[in-house]
Amino acid sequence: MNTSFYIWMGVLGVIAGLNLIMLKKQKDSKPRTIGILFNEFALGCIVFAVVISIFTN
Asked: Residue of 13, 18, 28, 35 with fewest CB within 10 Å of its CB?
């Protein structure tokens, strides 16, 4: 992969991480729980994509 892939994955990872931090500070609710699950899934997919990219190069 070229450098732009790593830049975009870094940007998306930072956005998902900041969303997680903001969601954890909110009071408990169903949308908060769904948001946390979605952001954790997104971070996991980003890490998985970067790891696969590193090992395939």
From this structure: 28
CA distances from 20 to 17, 23, 26, 32, 54 (A): 5, 5, 10, 10, 25
Angstrom distance (rounded) from CA 47 to CA 45: 5
Return the DSSP state at 26. S
CA distance readout (Å), 1 to 8, 46, 48: 12, 14, 14
pLDDT of residue 3: 85
Give residue-wise pLDDT tens across range 3-38.
888 899 999 999 988 998 998 888 888 888 898 899
| Geometric angle at alpha carbon 57, from 16 and 6, rounded to 5° | 25
DSSP 28: P
